[in-house]
Amino acid sequence: MDLPNPSRLPKNGPVLSYVLVGDEAFQLTSYMMRPYPRVKEGSLTLAKRIFNYRLCRARRGTVCLHNFIKKNEDLLPTIRRRYCHCNIVNTEDGAGQWRNDVPTESFYIISNTRSNAYKKQANVNRQQFTEYFNDEGAVSWQIEKINHPDF
């Protein structure tokens, strides 16, 4: 993954890596943050629950930005669209054209080819974000939100 080098957060914050945000479906890697797993109710520390909340907010913000850009781009003539070509995504009208362009025999059944264990650096990166969200990067409402029944 060709992401920018780590950089310092504002106001003399820590140096953190650029990362993508994902949910439990993604593997934790040095460039992909995923939530701490909730094995059972009450199994996560306060710091980990705050990290999960902040990651969830980042994912929701990304989805909102995508939808905003997509909705506004859909108003443009097809030839002027740059964000997402109209034939490669599903629309409310039905499946994207790409589904018809790939022969079904192109898909193979694959098995797990490697361990699901994450690398040490991935855990270090997640821990650094956890510490930041619980210290100088904390926001005033995060404790209230993680204690809300809907979270």
Automatic annotation (TrEMBL):
Domain of life: Eukaryota
Protein name: DDE Tnp4 domain-containing protein
Organism per entry: Rhamnusium bicolor
